[in-house]
Every structure is written in structure tokens, then in C-alpha cells.
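Per reviewer request, we include the raw input and output of the structure prediction for the construct analysed in the revised manuscript.
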Amino acid sequence: MSKQTLFVTLTAAVVLCGCQSSKVKISGRFVGSDARSIYLEQVTPQAQTIVDSTLLDAEGGYRFLLRGVERTPSLYNVVYNGERIPLLLAGGDRVTLGSVGSVIRNYTVEGSAESALLGEFYRDFVAGAQQLDRMAVRFAHENLSEAERKQLAEEYGREYYRIRREQLRFIVENSSSLAAVYALYQRLPGDTYLFNGDSDVVYFRTVAEAVGERYPESPYLASLRAEIARMDAGISLASQISETSYPDLELTDIFGKKVRLSSLAGKVILLDFWSAELGNSNVFNAELKDIYGKFAGAEIPFEVYQVAIDTSKALWITAVQEQQLPWVSVSDLRGSASNALALYNVQKLPANFLIDKEGNIVAKNIYGKSLEDKLAELTR
């Protein structure tokens, strides 16, 4: 995994805490790489900021000294050889951190109980995500036979669900730790939710309650509770969806024009959620383009309202143009924070909703021949 997903969205400004501050010392050795520079980042709600840097000595040793660190643990990253090691540091900590060989697989941390616990989760999660990345690259190779593709897909599925099970186990078993807060916000590639959309709020509440008892002054509590409120609101909005109506959307197309979903009323509509950033859009869109062309002259018009769950405008527009997508393409460029996801309770991409000419949602997550057969029924 090229870059970890950080929980910057939940880190609160530690300067707001009135706790007594102190020093933190971090030292150790990194052996097995030619890289000589090492950095220390502080993670805030707005950014990851380098607060110190140094060079390894001849034996791979280094030392950092932080001043004014609060007694309530907060998130820092040690960055070495392109890898980030997350630490939860509190004033007074004397941390020994080092590695021999592969940084993420082999690093050890002592002197900070929260950082050591976080390491138990992080090493396995990142190693698993990297394994999934390697499998995805192999799967895309042209020379694989169908049997090899099937076997690889099964291996991918087993590893994916193993990682998810371990993530949830860690959160439940360590719910009173700030390491569990970090684990709540980690996502495998392509995942919007921790587990299953509505069910996620259970884990957030469990951690918020346990952390509140153990760290009542933690600045993370306010952010956790705000996230729970947001998820509750999303569940409430999602509950408004019925088989006889649908919530309206108004999003911007690639030309900057706002387009309402309801402007397509009277047509059969496929509301489709996708992401150019995920890299699998070509396959899904190619199939949909083929179906779209077959119903271009249908008695009851058919249209696609495709919502891109992306943050890069350039990447989204480039994908729309390169793939020559003929339908309505819109996005709010908020990525996983898009209100459209919560409104339609979208748990994983891609996802779609098929709406008939009367405005009824008649099918969800329908693809290929099933979609084609249903459209043949609805457009005549």
C-alpha cells in the first residue's frame, strides 16, 4: 500500500487541552537500507507536518527530542525510507523505535504502550494491504488463464476477509485504546466503510464510550462523537429510501453545470456510483456503454446518472473523456465524504440503483445480463 490512510479527520487540536506538557525522546536504529534521512511528522486535522529531521549515524542510530508534548497521547509519524510508522505519543514518553530489514514488517517500539499496541495492528494491516495490491497487479496481467484468474480471485477474497476480521477483532478487544481509534479509520483499497455501512456506528460508539472512560480529556472524543452523529444522520437519511420514491441529487457535471437527478423524471434511470480513482472503471463502464447503446432508441427513454466518488477533478474529467462516457456524469469531488453516499447508503463501489419511469427504485446493484433484461422490461 503506497500510502496509509490516516485518521487526520478525527485528530483534534491538542493545544486545546489544558494538560501539563513535557518532553518526548525518540531514539533507535534502522538497519538494512541505504537511506540516511529520517523525519518526524506531527498529524493535525489539517495536515501532516514535518516537525524534525536528522541523519542516521554510521550505525543507523538517530535521536529526536520533542518539547511541549501534552500528557494526552497524540499522533505522530516517524518517516524512514518512504515508510510511515505511526506513534501515539504522550508527554514524558521515552520511546525506542527501530527496525532491521523491512521497516513495516520488522519495526519494534518500546516505551509507549499505546504506540506498541498500535504497532500490533498496523504491521499486519499494511502487510495485508500490500499483499492485496500485489494480487491486483497479477490479476491485471494479460497472460493469466481463466483458471489462474479464478484461483487468484479466491486468494484475494480470503486475504481480504482475513484482514477485515483482524481489524474488527483488534477494535473490539482494544476498544479503550487510542490505537483502536486509529484502526477505526483505516480502509482497504476501494472500501468506503469499515464493515457494512449502518453497522459501522456500533464500533464507533463502542470505542467512543470506552475511550471516554479511560481518557476523559482526550481531544479525540469530540471528533469521534461528531462522526457518530454524522453516521446517525446518514442512517436517518438512508431510511427515507423506499421502493416507491428516491431522494433527489443535484451535482455538478464536467462542464460546471449543476444537474438534478429529478430532471430525468419520466425516463428509466440508472443511478450509478463509481470512482475513477479505483482503477477498475474501464471494465464496468465498457459493459455499461454496451448496454446503454442497445437501449438508445427505446420506446421509454433510458438514461444514466453517474456519480463519481472522487476528489481529483482532473482525474475524473480525464476518465470521462478518455472513456467517452455518453451519459450524465457528475461529482461533488468530496470522495468518501460525499453526502450522496450517505443518502443512498452506498456501502461499496461500484453500486447502482435502477429507477423506473414512475420514480420507483426497482433494483439495486444490478449488472450485466440482469440489468439488460430488466431494462428490456421497463423501456417498452
